[in-house]
Amino acid sequence: MRLIATLACTALLSLSSLSATSAQAQMAMDKPGAPLASPAATAKVSLGGKDVTIHYGAPSIRTRKIMGGLVPYGEVWRTGANEATTLITAAELKIGTLTLPAGTYTLFTLPTASSWQLIVSKATGEWGIPYPEGQDFGRTPLTGKTLGSPQEVMSISFEKTKGNSTELHIKWEKADQYIAVTAK
Fold first, then answer.
1. What is the C-alpha separation between 40 and 183, in angstroms, rounded?
2. Is the distance from CB of 60 to CB of 103 less than 8 angstroms?
3. Are 169 and 82 spatial neighbours (Cβ–Cβ below 8 Å)?
């Protein structure tokens, strides 16, 4: 009987210790300035004197299979982590085949093994999932290339900016998906 009581006390103390350690780890992550698993990031460019800004969560690979795994092929992806990826533009934009009035939008992508589409949604303020079907402003194909080495942290960037035009790049793992953007 004494052995059973001793084992029970030991088990309870071990559980308490694990719970406290887990709580301490969570509290450390919640502290201001603590590293986030998918920190907030921003891509910004000025086209024709007007700002175009994208806010997104930047997830990391962390030994996971990303394309065709965590980001499944043939399903709409929120294109980042945490809150929805938001595009704010002060200029009317031509993004691929879409003409987008100045305003605020949410960006999604539809990746497949051979091609991706950029989805611009009129719905804003959502967490990022579920995808707000029926709220598409439109869809346009992205151009893809393979990165020479895996990129650990997902990024959205504006590259090759000249005057009123730029390229919007979405990079993660070995994928680099991009599209021409022009201010009208």
1. 26
2. no
3. no
* pLDDT of the residue at 105: 97
Residues 112, 169 share a domain: yes
Identify the domain containing residue 119 by its residue range.
36-183
Kindly state the average pLDDT of the residues 19-33.
Answer: 41
Contact indicator for 74, 112 with CB cutoff of 8 Å: yes
In this structure, are 84 and 130 located in the same domain? yes
pLDDT surpassing 90 at residue 172 = yes
Residue type, 159: E
Are the CB atoms for 71 and 77 separated by under 8 Å? yes
Are 87 and 56 in contact, with CB atoms under 8 Å apart? no
Give the pTM.
0.79
How far is it, in rounded angstroms, from Cα 60 to Cα 155? 10
Lowest mean pLDDT among 21-25, 102-106, 180-184: 21-25
Residue 180 β-bridge partners:
167
Q: Phi and psi (nearest 5°) for 17?
A: -65, -45
Residue 95 burial class via C-beta count within 10 angstroms: exposed 0-12, middle 13-18, buried 19 and up: buried
pLDDT mean across residues, the chain: 85
Same domain, 30 and 41: no
Domains: count for the chain: 2
DSSP state of 48: T
Q: What is the mean pLDDT of residues 70-82?
A: 93
